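$ run holo --ligand "S-adenosylmethionine" --emit C-alpha coordinates
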Amino acid sequence: MRAHVAAQTATFAEKLLDLVPAPPATMLDIGSGDGLIAWAAFSRWPYVNVTMTDISPALLLQAQAQAHSRNVASQCGFVLTNAETLAGVADSSQNLVTSRSALAYVADKPAAFRAALRVLRPGGIISIAEPLFRDQALSLNRLGQACAAMANPLAALLHRWQAAQFLDTSDALRANPIINYAEQDLFNFARQAGFQDVHLELHIDEQQAPPRDWETFCAMSPHPLAPSSAQILATRFSPAERKILEAAIRPRIEKGGFGTTSRMIYLRGRKAE
Ligand SMILES: C[S@@+](CC[C@H](N)C(=O)[O-])C[C@H]1O[C@@H](n2cnc3c(N)ncnc32)[C@H](O)[C@@H]1O
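-- output --
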Protein backbone atom coordinates (compact mmCIF):
# COMPACT_ATOMS: atom_id res chain seq x y z
CA MET A 1 0.00 0.00 0.00
CA ARG A 2 2.89 2.32 0.80
CA ALA A 3 4.21 1.83 -2.76
CA HIS A 4 0.73 2.30 -4.22
CA VAL A 5 0.22 5.61 -2.37
CA ALA A 6 3.76 6.78 -3.21
CA ALA A 7 3.13 6.16 -6.92
CA GLN A 8 -0.08 8.17 -6.75
CA THR A 9 1.48 11.14 -4.93
CA ALA A 10 4.42 11.11 -7.36
CA THR A 11 1.90 11.55 -10.20
CA PHE A 12 0.40 14.58 -8.43
CA ALA A 13 3.88 16.09 -7.96
CA GLU A 14 4.81 15.61 -11.62
CA LYS A 15 1.57 17.16 -12.84
CA LEU A 16 2.05 20.19 -10.57
CA LEU A 17 5.58 20.70 -11.96
CA ASP A 18 4.37 20.14 -15.56
CA LEU A 19 2.32 23.32 -15.19
CA VAL A 20 5.44 25.43 -14.53
CA PRO A 21 6.29 27.17 -17.82
CA ALA A 22 10.09 27.56 -17.38
CA PRO A 23 12.84 26.20 -15.07
CA PRO A 24 12.99 28.39 -11.93
CA ALA A 25 16.23 29.55 -10.30
CA THR A 26 14.59 29.64 -6.87
CA MET A 27 11.51 27.93 -5.53
CA LEU A 28 9.70 27.67 -2.23
CA ASP A 29 7.52 24.72 -1.26
CA ILE A 30 4.73 25.37 1.23
CA GLY A 31 4.04 22.53 3.66
CA SER A 32 6.92 20.60 2.17
CA GLY A 33 6.67 17.62 4.52
CA ASP A 34 9.69 15.41 3.92
CA GLY A 35 10.33 17.00 0.52
CA LEU A 36 8.34 15.15 -2.15
CA ILE A 37 8.00 18.22 -4.39
CA ALA A 38 11.60 19.33 -3.85
CA TRP A 39 13.05 15.97 -4.90
CA ALA A 40 10.81 15.88 -7.99
CA ALA A 41 11.96 19.43 -8.83
CA PHE A 42 15.65 18.48 -8.52
CA SER A 43 15.14 15.63 -11.02
CA ARG A 44 13.92 18.18 -13.58
CA TRP A 45 15.95 21.22 -12.65
CA PRO A 46 19.28 20.14 -11.08
CA TYR A 47 20.41 23.76 -10.49
CA VAL A 48 17.32 25.02 -8.69
CA ASN A 49 17.57 26.38 -5.12
CA VAL A 50 14.70 25.15 -2.96
CA THR A 51 13.33 26.59 0.27
CA MET A 52 11.22 24.03 2.11
CA THR A 53 8.74 25.42 4.63
CA ASP A 54 6.54 23.57 7.08
CA ILE A 55 5.03 23.90 10.56
CA SER A 56 6.45 20.51 11.55
CA PRO A 57 10.03 20.67 12.89
CA ALA A 58 10.23 16.85 12.68
CA LEU A 59 9.36 16.79 8.97
CA LEU A 60 11.79 19.61 8.20
CA LEU A 61 14.53 17.61 9.96
CA GLN A 62 13.65 14.57 7.85
CA ALA A 63 13.79 16.70 4.70
CA GLN A 64 17.17 18.08 5.78
CA ALA A 65 18.56 14.56 6.29
CA GLN A 66 17.29 13.55 2.86
CA ALA A 67 18.84 16.65 1.27
CA HIS A 68 22.22 15.48 2.62
CA SER A 69 21.79 11.91 1.43
CA ARG A 70 20.72 13.19 -2.01
CA ASN A 71 23.75 15.54 -2.18
CA VAL A 72 21.64 18.66 -2.66
CA ALA A 73 21.96 20.19 0.83
CA SER A 74 23.88 23.22 -0.49
CA GLN A 75 20.87 24.08 -2.69
CA CYS A 76 18.27 23.68 0.07
CA GLY A 77 16.96 25.99 2.78
CA PHE A 78 14.52 25.04 5.55
CA VAL A 79 12.17 27.49 7.24
CA LEU A 80 9.83 26.62 10.08
CA THR A 81 6.85 28.78 9.24
CA ASN A 82 3.17 28.55 8.44
CA ALA A 83 1.54 28.94 5.04
CA GLU A 84 -0.60 31.84 6.26
CA THR A 85 2.40 34.16 6.80
CA LEU A 86 5.57 32.54 5.38
CA ALA A 87 7.28 34.58 8.11
CA GLY A 88 11.06 34.56 7.73
CA VAL A 89 10.92 34.41 3.93
CA ALA A 90 11.96 37.63 2.19
CA ASP A 91 9.58 39.54 -0.08
CA SER A 92 10.04 39.00 -3.83
CA SER A 93 12.68 36.30 -3.31
CA GLN A 94 11.27 33.33 -5.29
CA ASN A 95 10.64 32.46 -8.94
CA LEU A 96 8.24 29.65 -8.07
CA VAL A 97 5.98 28.76 -5.15
CA THR A 98 4.61 25.22 -4.98
CA SER A 99 2.37 23.35 -2.59
CA ARG A 100 0.93 19.83 -2.63
CA SER A 101 -1.82 18.81 -0.23
CA ALA A 102 -0.75 21.38 2.36
CA LEU A 103 -2.99 24.40 1.72
CA ALA A 104 -5.87 21.98 2.30
CA TYR A 105 -5.06 22.10 6.04
CA VAL A 106 -4.95 25.88 6.22
CA ALA A 107 -8.09 27.51 7.62
CA ASP A 108 -7.25 30.95 6.21
CA LYS A 109 -6.49 30.03 2.60
CA PRO A 110 -6.80 33.62 1.27
CA ALA A 111 -3.95 34.60 3.66
CA ALA A 112 -1.82 31.76 2.28
CA PHE A 113 -2.30 33.00 -1.30
CA ARG A 114 -1.37 36.54 -0.21
CA ALA A 115 1.78 35.24 1.52
CA ALA A 116 2.73 33.28 -1.62
CA LEU A 117 2.29 36.41 -3.72
CA ARG A 118 4.44 38.40 -1.31
CA VAL A 119 7.45 36.06 -1.54
CA LEU A 120 7.30 35.75 -5.35
CA ARG A 121 9.34 37.96 -7.64
CA PRO A 122 7.40 39.93 -10.26
CA GLY A 123 6.54 37.42 -13.02
CA GLY A 124 6.92 34.51 -10.55
CA ILE A 125 4.66 31.47 -10.72
CA ILE A 126 2.52 29.64 -8.18
CA SER A 127 1.66 26.01 -8.95
CA ILE A 128 -0.28 23.92 -6.47
CA ALA A 129 -2.12 20.62 -6.27
CA GLU A 130 -4.80 20.21 -3.61
CA PRO A 131 -7.32 17.45 -3.05
CA LEU A 132 -11.05 18.05 -3.36
CA PHE A 133 -13.07 16.22 -0.70
CA ARG A 134 -16.16 18.42 -0.65
CA ASP A 135 -18.03 16.52 -3.37
CA GLN A 136 -17.57 13.25 -1.49
CA ALA A 137 -18.82 14.84 1.73
CA LEU A 138 -21.85 16.35 -0.01
CA SER A 139 -22.84 13.07 -1.66
CA LEU A 140 -22.44 11.38 1.71
CA ASN A 141 -24.90 13.87 3.10
CA ARG A 142 -27.42 12.84 0.43
CA LEU A 143 -26.63 9.14 1.05
CA GLY A 144 -27.39 9.64 4.75
CA GLN A 145 -30.82 11.01 3.92
CA ALA A 146 -31.46 8.14 1.48
CA CYS A 147 -30.42 5.54 4.09
CA ALA A 148 -32.78 7.02 6.62
CA ALA A 149 -35.58 6.83 4.06
CA MET A 150 -34.79 3.22 3.03
CA ALA A 151 -34.49 1.94 6.61
CA ASN A 152 -31.69 -0.40 5.42
CA PRO A 153 -29.65 -1.38 8.52
CA LEU A 154 -26.39 -2.20 6.67
CA ALA A 155 -26.56 0.99 4.61
CA ALA A 156 -27.15 2.97 7.79
CA LEU A 157 -24.08 1.39 9.45
CA LEU A 158 -21.96 2.12 6.36
CA HIS A 159 -23.17 5.68 6.36
CA ARG A 160 -22.24 6.11 10.04
CA TRP A 161 -18.73 4.83 9.25
CA GLN A 162 -18.22 7.14 6.29
CA ALA A 163 -19.73 10.09 8.08
CA ALA A 164 -17.10 9.72 10.80
CA GLN A 165 -14.42 10.23 8.14
CA PHE A 166 -16.05 12.81 5.90
CA LEU A 167 -18.35 14.74 8.28
CA ASP A 168 -21.79 14.92 6.83
CA THR A 169 -23.46 17.76 8.66
CA SER A 170 -23.41 21.16 7.03
CA ASP A 171 -21.79 22.79 10.08
CA ALA A 172 -19.00 20.19 10.32
CA LEU A 173 -18.44 20.52 6.60
CA ARG A 174 -18.09 24.29 6.80
CA ALA A 175 -15.72 24.15 9.80
CA ASN A 176 -13.24 21.63 8.39
CA PRO A 177 -10.52 23.26 6.26
CA ILE A 178 -9.74 20.07 4.37
CA ILE A 179 -13.34 19.68 3.21
CA ASN A 180 -14.89 23.15 3.11
CA TYR A 181 -13.57 24.39 -0.26
CA ALA A 182 -14.33 23.73 -3.90
CA GLU A 183 -12.16 24.35 -6.95
CA GLN A 184 -13.91 27.67 -7.61
CA ASP A 185 -12.93 28.87 -4.12
CA LEU A 186 -9.22 28.27 -4.77
CA PHE A 187 -9.56 30.06 -8.11
CA ASN A 188 -11.20 33.04 -6.40
CA PHE A 189 -8.63 33.15 -3.56
CA ALA A 190 -5.80 33.26 -6.11
CA ARG A 191 -7.47 36.03 -8.12
CA GLN A 192 -8.37 38.04 -5.02
CA ALA A 193 -4.80 37.79 -3.69
CA GLY A 194 -3.66 39.43 -6.93
CA PHE A 195 -2.48 36.51 -9.10
CA GLN A 196 -2.97 36.89 -12.84
CA ASP A 197 -3.50 34.42 -15.69
CA VAL A 198 -4.95 31.95 -13.19
CA HIS A 199 -5.40 28.50 -14.71
CA LEU A 200 -7.20 25.69 -12.91
CA GLU A 201 -7.68 22.05 -13.79
CA LEU A 202 -9.89 19.65 -11.88
CA HIS A 203 -8.82 16.06 -12.41
CA ILE A 204 -11.31 13.36 -11.47
CA ASP A 205 -9.87 9.89 -11.91
CA GLU A 206 -11.29 6.51 -11.18
CA GLN A 207 -8.83 3.78 -10.23
CA GLN A 208 -9.42 0.15 -9.36
CA ALA A 209 -8.59 -0.44 -5.69
CA PRO A 210 -5.71 -2.88 -5.15
CA PRO A 211 -6.35 -5.93 -2.96
CA ARG A 212 -5.56 -5.02 0.65
CA ASP A 213 -5.34 -7.07 3.77
CA TRP A 214 -7.94 -6.13 6.34
CA GLU A 215 -5.46 -4.82 8.95
CA THR A 216 -3.82 -2.50 6.41
CA PHE A 217 -7.21 -1.19 5.32
CA CYS A 218 -8.28 -0.61 8.92
CA ALA A 219 -5.05 1.25 9.72
CA MET A 220 -5.69 3.76 6.92
CA SER A 221 -7.92 6.81 6.67
CA PRO A 222 -9.13 8.52 3.48
CA HIS A 223 -7.58 11.87 4.41
CA PRO A 224 -5.20 12.92 7.18
CA LEU A 225 -7.74 14.71 9.37
CA ALA A 226 -9.98 11.63 9.49
CA PRO A 227 -9.70 8.90 12.11
CA SER A 228 -8.59 5.50 10.82
CA SER A 229 -11.20 2.85 10.14
CA ALA A 230 -9.79 0.84 13.08
CA GLN A 231 -10.42 3.78 15.45
CA ILE A 232 -13.93 4.27 14.11
CA LEU A 233 -14.83 0.59 14.36
CA ALA A 234 -13.48 0.43 17.91
CA THR A 235 -15.14 3.55 19.24
CA ARG A 236 -18.38 4.07 17.33
CA PHE A 237 -19.82 0.60 16.86
CA SER A 238 -20.93 -2.19 19.16
CA PRO A 239 -19.29 -5.64 18.79
CA ALA A 240 -22.42 -6.88 16.98
CA GLU A 241 -22.34 -3.95 14.54
CA ARG A 242 -18.61 -4.46 13.94
CA LYS A 243 -19.32 -8.07 13.01
CA ILE A 244 -21.97 -7.07 10.46
CA LEU A 245 -19.68 -4.45 8.92
CA GLU A 246 -16.65 -6.72 8.73
CA ALA A 247 -18.66 -9.53 7.13
CA ALA A 248 -20.00 -7.13 4.51
CA ILE A 249 -16.81 -5.22 3.69
CA ARG A 250 -13.79 -7.40 4.37
CA PRO A 251 -14.20 -9.73 1.34
CA ARG A 252 -14.49 -6.73 -0.99
CA ILE A 253 -11.38 -5.08 0.45
CA GLU A 254 -9.33 -8.27 0.26
CA LYS A 255 -10.40 -8.86 -3.35
CA GLY A 256 -9.95 -5.23 -4.52
CA GLY A 257 -10.89 -4.28 -8.06
CA PHE A 258 -13.70 -1.83 -7.25
CA GLY A 259 -13.65 1.76 -8.48
CA THR A 260 -12.31 4.54 -6.23
CA THR A 261 -12.35 8.17 -7.27
CA SER A 262 -9.69 10.78 -6.62
CA ARG A 263 -10.35 14.47 -7.18
CA MET A 264 -7.35 16.78 -7.51
CA ILE A 265 -7.29 20.52 -8.15
CA TYR A 266 -4.26 21.94 -10.01
CA LEU A 267 -3.90 25.70 -10.01
CA ARG A 268 -1.27 27.92 -11.58
CA GLY A 269 -1.04 31.71 -11.42
CA ARG A 270 1.44 34.47 -12.11
CA LYS A 271 2.52 37.52 -10.13
CA ALA A 272 2.30 40.69 -12.26
CA GLU A 273 5.60 41.96 -13.76
C1 LIG B 1 -0.12 15.73 3.35
S1 LIG B 1 1.36 16.49 3.88
C2 LIG B 1 2.04 16.96 2.29
C3 LIG B 1 3.52 17.10 2.36
C4 LIG B 1 4.20 17.42 1.02
N1 LIG B 1 3.71 18.67 0.47
C5 LIG B 1 4.03 16.30 0.02
O1 LIG B 1 3.56 16.57 -1.09
O2 LIG B 1 4.40 15.15 0.33
C6 LIG B 1 0.80 18.07 4.53
C7 LIG B 1 1.91 18.95 5.06
O3 LIG B 1 1.37 20.25 5.34
C8 LIG B 1 1.94 20.72 6.54
N2 LIG B 1 1.05 21.76 7.08
C9 LIG B 1 -0.15 21.61 7.69
N3 LIG B 1 -0.65 22.81 8.04
C10 LIG B 1 0.23 23.75 7.64
C11 LIG B 1 0.28 25.18 7.72
N4 LIG B 1 -0.70 25.88 8.29
N5 LIG B 1 1.35 25.80 7.19
C12 LIG B 1 2.36 25.10 6.61
N6 LIG B 1 2.36 23.75 6.52
C13 LIG B 1 1.32 23.08 7.02
C14 LIG B 1 2.08 19.48 7.38
O4 LIG B 1 3.00 19.66 8.44
C15 LIG B 1 2.53 18.46 6.35
O5 LIG B 1 3.92 18.44 6.18
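-- notes --
The first helix runs from residue 2 to 18.
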